[in-house]
Amino acid sequence: MNFTTNRHHRALPAKHRFPGQHKLVEKISVIDPTLLILLAVIIVFGLIMLSSASAILSYKNNQGDSYYYLKHQIIFGVLIGGLAFYIMSKIDYHYWRRHAFWIVVGTIILLLAVFIPGLGSEFLGAKRWIDIGGFVFQPSEVVKLSFLIYLSAWLEKKGKEVADLHYGLISFLVMLGFLVLFIAVAQKDLGTTMVIAVISVVVYFIAGAPWKHLGLLMLGGVVSFLGLVKIAAHRVDRLTTFFNPQADLQGIGYHVYQALIAIGSGGFFGVGLGHSMQKKLSYLPAVMTDSIFAVIAEELGFLFSIFLVILFFGLVWRILLIAKKAPDQFGRLLAVGIATWIGFQAFVNIGAMLALLPLTGIPLPFISYGSSSMIMLLAAMGLVANISKKI
Fold this sequence. Notes:
Layout: H1 33-61, H2 68-90, H3 94-98, H4 100-113, E1 120-123, E2 126-132, E3 135-137, H5 139-158, H6 165-186, H7 190-206, H8 211-230, H9 233-243, H10 254-266, H11 277-280, H12 292-325, H13 329-353, H14 371-388
Antiparallel strand pairs: 1-2, 2-3
Helix pairs in contact: 1-2, 1-12, 2-14, 4-5, 5-7, 5-13, 5-14, 6-7, 7-8, 7-13, 10-12, 12-13, 13-14
């Protein structure tokens, strides 16, 4: 009996194949593993540093509980955000394109809800938060993702009309202008306004807008920024501090000065985890939020500070690679927007601590204390994860 294989033997018809045989050659959809590893490392690193940065303040403000803020970040930020990540990674990202309009409408309603007595919450003269049974969240953080979804769907639908002055640029400016002016003026949140504006302009350009449109947008952005700075005294002070950090070291220049002392004190290897003197003596403002990078630099030194920067660079680069391989324009624009969001916030926050940029109140992604930011960033990463499953 001849058991040799006939090379001219034809493949069996589909009805004669073993059940499920065709599935063996199908591509298994999995989330990009490098994306998951980078994200997990950044989050764990952030929780360790938050534990150190918040311990003293937490002990003073919460009846001796040194881990109150850490537990709050884990429960209301990481766990809820992890659930958001899981849901967004499971739902086909095209679902959000079909409902983009109503998503952004719902977000605008949330932005207006902060002015409802008994629902909106005010802090330092700004109404930016909604308080529901003790759970406080910031609707403007939701805007970063919801408007990106809507803008990506709108730009994909526009196609080549994006390059048209009236149907492209003017329509884009009307949408963006209404949103950012409302957040900047009504909610007095210039930092979030800048993030949304930068994300939107980058996505608009990637969608096919010509260079001349980009030039007009940059010019308009500078004029708008200076106008928004001029109408608020604290913004003028921050800009003054940036141009002359030594002007008032006990006043408007105090925050940046103390951050630079912390960073300089860390040297190459740092003073040790939990041993920041700027934190212990309460010299450094906003140690859990805006200034957490200064605490990292003081306690862990230049070495780990660079390590964190490399982690952010790696995460952004990985998201851009996923964007490049995305199967359609909608997925591509979403991924580019999310990469811009994370990269820009990290750049501005770290740059401000190094006195390379003005202070804006923009948090360090996945590191700074704040459940709203963590939840929405993880939801956005879940969206990227779902896109990665399609390539």
